[in-house]
């Protein structure tokens, strides 16, 4: 379809630029000018000033100026269109980049918050197990049954492993934190995990200490039971010796006394060589009592030997020594507790109290950290 600028005869495949005029057009214009020159040579000059003026070829710019102006306008419009398209493309690319960046950040935030909530739920599940321990530590650990202690001692290491898993999850979230409050919250999570670990360690140590207490108490109880049994044997031997009217009766009473003496001696050795925990107890009163009972029974055996040998003077002296030692033993017995249990328990009182204080100090730290975390998480 003919355009506005077809009169310029612009050739699409010219040797120059796309809008360059063809050489055919220039040649035609040159031929036309040559014809005009030939006609003017035959009387082109006017006879006078009012008959016109000379118009040379250089004064006409219709062919050269008009096409050039139009070409430049067209070029400017084409450049403007190309620039507009380029700017539009840049805006689209920039908008896409911004949109992608925003979507990526959104997805990262959703992932962070999801993992943070999962971690808190994991800690809540551990707390369900800690509740029972907390009740025990708030009450009397010593009164806790052996079966319960044994079960909790097996469960606590598993709880600690779960806390360590939560710690690792919190550490992995540090690189995903995008806000200052995220980093603060994660530090509080670390603090609450530390506190829970300290609580469980203190509780575990308390439960194990009660195990030791019960074992030592049982050992001490059995040991003192032997002392009571030896005392009963000694009383029976003394009664038999007082009634003895023949050598056979004296010998029988002597053997009974020797059996009681052996029991007292073994009990004294066991008390002196008790395990490391019991050795910390002050059993000096019991040792003095046992020493006197052993001394008295040795005089009783010596009395029987003197009687069997017919040495009444020696038998009298040994019997007086027996009575004196037995009197001293009776005085010492008045100062003795009925059992060794309280003395054994006193060995652990201070240590249990210290562990309990450690537990509740850690518990307070957990409460403070948990309050900060709840505020951060909006719970």
State the helicity in percent bands. Answer: over 70%
How would you state the average pLDDT, rounded? Answer: 78
- Uncertain runs are 1-31, 36-65
Portion of residues in beta strands equals under 5%
Q: What is the CA-CA span between the terminal residues?
A: 75 Å
Q: What summary fits the major beta sheet?
A: none
Query: Total number of helical segments?
Result: 8
SSE string: HHHHHHHH
Choose one word for the global shape: rod-shaped
Number of strands: 0
Task: Determine Rg (CA atoms, Å).
Answer: 58 Å
Quick recap of the structure?
The chain is mainly alpha-helical and 379 residues long. The protein has helices spanning 23-40, 62-138, 146-174, 180-243, 247-272, 284-309, 312-333, 341-377.
């Amino acid at each position: 379809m003919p355009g506005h600028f077809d009169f310029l005869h612009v050739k699409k495949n010219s040797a120059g630029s796309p809008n360059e005029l063809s050489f055919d057009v220039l040649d035609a214009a040159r031929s036309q000018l040559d014809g005009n020159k030939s006609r003017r040579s035959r009387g082109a000059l006017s006879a006078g000033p009012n008959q016109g003026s000379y118009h040379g070829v250089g004064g006409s710019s219709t062919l050269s100026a008009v096409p050039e102006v139009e070409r430049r306008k067209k070029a400017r419009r084409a450049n403007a269109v190309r620039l507009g398209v380029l700017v539009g493309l840049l805006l689209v690319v920039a908008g896409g980049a911004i949109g992608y960046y925003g979507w990526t950040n959104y997805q990262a935030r959703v992932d962070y918050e999801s993992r943070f909530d999962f971690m808190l739920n994991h800690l809540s599940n551990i707390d369900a197990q800690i509740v029972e321990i907390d009740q025990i530590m708030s009450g009397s650990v010593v009164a806790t049954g052996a079966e319960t202690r044994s079960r909790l001692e097996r469960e606590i290491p598993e709880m600690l492993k779960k806390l360590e898993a939560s710690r690792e999850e919190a550490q992995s979230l540090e690189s995903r934190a995008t806000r200052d409050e995220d980093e603060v919250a994660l530090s509080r999570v670390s603090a609450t995990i530390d506190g829970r670990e300290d609580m469980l360690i203190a509780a575990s140590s308390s439960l194990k200490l009660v195990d030791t207490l019960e074992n030592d108490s049982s050992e001490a109880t059995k040991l003192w039971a032997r002392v009571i049994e030896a005392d009963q044997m000694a009383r029976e031997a003394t009664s038999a010796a007082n009634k003895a009217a023949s050598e056979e009766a004296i010998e029988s009473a002597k053997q009974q006394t020797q059996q009681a003496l052996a029991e007292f001696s073994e009990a004294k050795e066991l008390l002196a060589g008790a395990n490391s925990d019991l050795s910390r107890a002050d059993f000096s009163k019991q040792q003095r009592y046992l020493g006197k009972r052993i001394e008295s029974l040795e005089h009783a055996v010596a009395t029987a030997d003197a009687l069997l040998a017919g040495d009444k003077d020696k038998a009298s002296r040994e019997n007086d020594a027996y009575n004196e030692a037995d009197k001293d033993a009776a005085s010492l017995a008045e100062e003795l507790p009925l059992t060794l249990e309280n003395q054994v328990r006193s060995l652990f009182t201070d240590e249990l109290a210290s562990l309990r204080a450690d537990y509740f100090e850690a518990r307070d730290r957990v409460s403070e950290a948990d309050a900060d975390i709840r505020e951060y998480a909006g719970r």
